[in-house]
Amino acid sequence: MSADRTESADRTESADRRESADRTESAGPPRDATSQALSADLGDGTYLNPVLAADWSDPDVVRVGEDFYLTASSFGRVPGLPLLHSRDLVNWRLIGHALQRLHPAAEFDRPRHDCGVWAPSIRHHDGRFWIFWGDPDHGVFQVNAPDIHGPWSEPHLIKAGKGLIDACPLWDEESGEAYLVHAWARSRSGVKNRLTGHRMSADGRELLDEGKVIVDADRIPGWFTLEGPKVYRHDGWYWILAPAGGVETGWQGALRSRCFFGPYEERIVLEQGDTDINGPHQGGWVRTSAGEDWFLHFQQRGAYGRLVHLQPMHWDTSGWPVIGDDGAPVRVHKKPDLPREPLSAPATDDDFTGGRFGRQWQWTANPRDGWAPRHSGDGLRLLCVPTADAHDLRRQPNILTQRLPALPCTVEVELELAAQRPGARAGLTVLGDAYSWIGLERGPDGGVRLVHRFGEAVADQERDAARDRPAPDGRARLRIETGAGARCRFSADTGDGFTRSGPVFAATPWRWVGALLGLFALAPEGGGDPGSALFTRFRITV
């Protein structure tokens, strides 16, 4: 796809798409106070990075008419391939997902937190949206749809193999050829620091050759861990924008060649310099209808995951891109020259209207029928799923999660435990390589008690974080207050006001994934109805 020849659409069609996105964003309010507070828009014509202050890992972006669409890695969470929409590159809203179940389905019936969908690329070609990604254990997949809201095709495996990651297609409008480039994960293939290119069929369903290494970064002095390629055609050159040097400490590179298969020359076009924006790593280039160039990339921030930054971009006299402030990331900058938009960010709050949960929630594995039964009233009813391993939340497929904001915040939810089975439990958790949760549990005497537990990264059994206390009505308001460094303070109200519980817990990421907020309901195995728990009024306040 050429950035110079983005498909146009008239203002009426763009408005229709936007109205449709507004209707389908979430079961909760589309622009609640938290979403406005999380907006990066400073309201004076400037913005503050990150523009997405949560774990939207490995972002890629495309423009269609006046609309911008972004997708990101979703790893082992379901639904996958989030779809975000913006009209100004600063205010974003989550409008859906392109992948309803992970494939192969049997592989993702259990949590595989760091596997699944790695570093997708989104493009618009021949009247369709296309998303390609690499699953490091299975190969390169693609899905496509005539409209951003779907229906999206079933995942199609275009190249099978281990270690194939970060796939990106190119439909070359000048030559009429189609190509694919991907990187390698050494953990699966023993290979890294190189990019492989293929000729691809025009319908994006098959590769037409065995592939060729088009960039071997072992031959580039000082470069290592080259990955995340995004390929473009611009100004008579084939361009690959790709990071190297490692996620936390690396840089963004640009490579160009007159031929897709090389040879390529390279240049570092964005690096941390004297700023506090480490990385900066992996993203996508987009050109606005006004002719401005912008680059979206991520910054690794520990337990918060990979936060998305927006950088200005221009071309120097020798034809190379210059990103940020002369190659260094900006923190505050003038917004793109686009019409002003309402303050917004992906939704967090949820009233669970009509028993449904909003688009911001994802399961930790492919869901099964009955985990969240629909009902006529408000509130999220979760089945207390029977399990033999209820004492380690990291192994449970039925945790309903959303991203932890990278800002100090207060998370609250109301819980009623209706399950009568002894040992049934439900609660609110901060979930990562280590985790902690607070909630309610049915005791052997039939009473309900407030419990607070945690699981260490190296342990497979959780421990008490505080002494249990009675919850005589079987209800509680649960709260997590997060501070600097993702340090979390838990508290609960069982009818006599909020009381703090246990010591401060420092949230931790998974290997590639930031910490998650989660709701869950579990029960020990046994006969009879396991029962359920009802969650109401989920709020995040910043």
From TrEMBL:
This is Glycoside hydrolase 43 family protein. The keyword Amino-acid biosynthesis does not apply. Keywords: Glycosidase, Hydrolase. It comes from the Bacteria. Pfam families: GH43_C2, Glyco_hydro_43. Gene3D superfamilies: 2.60.120.200, Glycosyl hydrolase domain, family 43 (2.115.10.20). The keyword Hydrolase applies. It comes from Streptomyces monticola. Belongs to the glycosyl hydrolase 43 family. Residues 1-37 are annotated as: Disordered. GO terms for molecular function: hydrolase activity. SUPFAM superfamilies: Arabinanase/levansucrase/invertase, Concanavalin A-like lectins/glucanases. Residues 1-25 have a biased composition (Basic and acidic residues). InterPro entries: ConA-like_dom_sf, GH43_C2, Glyco_hydro_43, Glyco_hydro_beta-prop_sf, Glycosyl_Hydrlase_43. Residues 350-540 form the Beta-xylosidase C-terminal Concanavalin A-like domain.
